[in-house]
Description:
mainly alpha; globular; 58% helix
Amino acid sequence: ITPTGDPAWFVIAFDEAKTVFSDRRFGYYTHEDPKNASRMSEAAMHSHPMGNIDFEDMMARMRKLLAPGFTPRRLTQLQGWVQDLVDTCLDEMQADHDRNPGKPVNFHAHVGFRLPVLVIAALLGFPVEDAEEVIGLSDRMGSTVNGADALAATGELQQYMRVLVERKRGNLGPDVISDFIRAQDEDPDFFTVRSLESFAAG
């Protein structure tokens, strides 16, 4: 039984696990009835299957599209910027400690969660001034105990993405959201399974 009370199976034997991993019916996103599939938590993302086999096919296309966005060349271009982010996060953690000597500081809040979201924001192409908003929405989306708020945050992030996509259409750059827009321009059916904004939010 999952934390949400839904039934689930553990597959631990080698042969059975090999069968599951090679059968597309057991895809990470795939279920014949996704809305009624078992859930692992109340989180908005990665808590239940997101679609059927058509969605799995879409994810395969998406992985192929995203691959150039994570090449060593593009990541190297971000290296200095990421180092600055690390330094800033650590400085803020030190400042928090200095304001409250003798009390523990929250590494997760200052670095463990914050830093990856900031780096992802750079890869996706968010304006840096929007980082705090995106961090807050990401945190709410990942809530495993408040499904209603996690779902609301997902909708808010998709709306943010909708606005950002329209702003970017006239100024494409070397970022993932620009890659999404180019893919949609080249193939209007690329995002038929789920909208561009939904994938960007995910």
